[in-house]
Amino acid sequence: MNEHNEQRRILIAGGAGFLGAHLCRRMLNEGHRVICLDNYCTGSPDKVADLAGRDGFTLIRHDIVEPLPPGLDPTHIYNLACPASPVHYQRDPIQTLRSCVVGGYHLLELARRSQARILQASTSEVYGNPKTHPQHESYHGHVNPVGLRSCYDEGKRCAETLFADYSRAHGVQVKIARIFNTYGPGMSVGDGRVISNLITQALAGRPLTIYGDGNQTRSFCYVDDMIEGLVRLMDSVDTFMGPVNLGNTSEIAVIEVAQRILELTGREEEFEFVPLPPDDPALRCPDTTLAKSHLDWFPAVPLDEGLRHTIAYFSELVGHEQALARA
Ligand code: NAD
Ligand code: UDP
Where is the NAD-dependent epimerase/dehydratase domain (predicted)? Predict the structure, then answer.
């Protein structure tokens, strides 16, 4: 429960994904009722298996592109329903775009009817390949509208517009988080994003795949910090919609992350350089001044510590899968 001791009915769309499962667990542990809605395109009921059967937890298989099931009456909605890894969101780009826009519309209509607060998980990708650095929320981005990443980048941009218009036109309590690269325990082995790829490769004794020369930068935020930021944003004052950047400000080149992972896993250096995918942003680092001033939020977990937790998680997962394969 929160400080007002109220039990919330929280709908988490995309709740069986990486961030969603952490959020479901946290909300349930705080005493709220949680409805997890997911079509399992990148998530899985396994991610929330520990919550199944717990009082107050409901899991519904549903695609938010379709009209929502009847009877939902949430007080709060988190919209995390969209594949986040480039390999997954590019596999069915039209579905990705529809998830962002049509799915967002269905959730906003529900928020309007139920007078629920709604938080949209947007992304640093709305900045595209940025021309300013670090990226402040006032920067409007540099995005290719017709490229391979556009279904995600433009889908999330259009969703931000829709959310802002629902706030203005219908007075819906909207919150928009621009999430920067987040990693941690709970990611899938086949997720395809850089941290999970490099760790699983290091643990399997394979060369680490570096796209391009590895000098492109990202800023990696540990999952617990991100969940804290999302919760604070949901609970922020009525007048604050954002968009607000949530992410870590320590920027690092991809090749350096790979070197850290090699060190932490005790592996010798072995890289496989492959061509950089089109429109892969060269730089990415959030300006988090707004999150500090409005949410009193800043990430607390340093990269090495977060990587250690993530390596331990993947070691157990990979070991478990190998044992199953041998059985
Ligand atoms: P994820 O792929 O692990 O989780 C997304 C979840 O949404 C999955 O469970 C998937 O099955 C579900 N889903 C997708 N389309 C759906 C649909 N149409 N209907 C119902 N469920 C659907 O990704 P994640 O890392 O947990 O990301 C969660 C959200 O945060 C996404 O919206 C993503 O765009 C955003 N985000 C994440 C990051 C990050 O680094 N993790 C960065 C920026 C933005
Ligand atoms: N990348 C890499 N090796 C991999 C996966 C990704 O070098 O095995 C690079 C990718 O080209 C990008 C960065 O790592 O520059 C982050 O990629 P990710 O897919 O995690 O997220 P993005 O920020 O691109 O959405």
Answer: 10-239
ipTM value > 0.90: yes
Look-up of token digits 């001791």: 5
pLDDT at residue 3, as a whole number: 56
Residue 2 Cα, ligand 2 centroid: separation in angstroms? Answer: 37
- pLDDT tens-digit series, residues 245-257: 999 999 999 999 9
Q: How confident is the model at residue 324, as a pLDDT? A: 54
Q: Ligand 1: residues whose CB is within 6 Å?
A: 13-14, 16-20, 38-43, 63-65, 80-84, 99, 103, 121, 123, 179, 181-182
pLDDT of residue 1: 58
Give all domains of the chain, ordered by start, each with its CATH number.
9-182+222-247+285-300 (3.40.50.720)
Which atom from ligand 2 is nearest to the alpha carbon of 210? 7
Contact 257, 250 (CB under 8 A): no
Helical residues (DSSP H) of the chain, grouped into ranges: 18-29, 86-89, 93-98, 104-114, 150-170, 194-204, 223-234, 254-265, 289-295, 303-326
Token pair recorded at residue 280:
């892969």
